[in-house]
Write a structure and sequence with these properties.
mainly alpha, 59% helix
Length: 79
């Protein structure tokens, strides 16, 4: 699952608005919107930590939820 989908689903599950999540994270609502629209592909680990805290999940949970599965990897990416 892509980061944008994960954030949208988790935010909706918690009943948070974009503005409410941004306030919890400590960023602008535009930054959250950019994440949800897939326009911010490489957030920093510090941002992910803040985002995870605001969404009630760990960075590890975010990474695991957004990692490619083996079946979606290209041959060159498989271990």
């Amino acid at each position: 699952m892509a980061l944008n989908i994960f954030v949208m689903r988790r935010r909706a599950k918690l009943g948070l608005s974009i503005r409410g999540l941004a306030k919890r994270v400590g960023c602008s609502p535009t930054h959250i919107l950019d994440i949800e629209k897939g326009r911010s592909a490489n957030p920093t680990i510090d941002f992910l930590a803040s985002l995870g805290g605001a969404l009630g999940v760990s960075v590890i949970q975010i990474v695991r939820a957004t990692m490619k599965t083996d079946s979606s990897l290209n041959e060159s990416e498989k271990p």
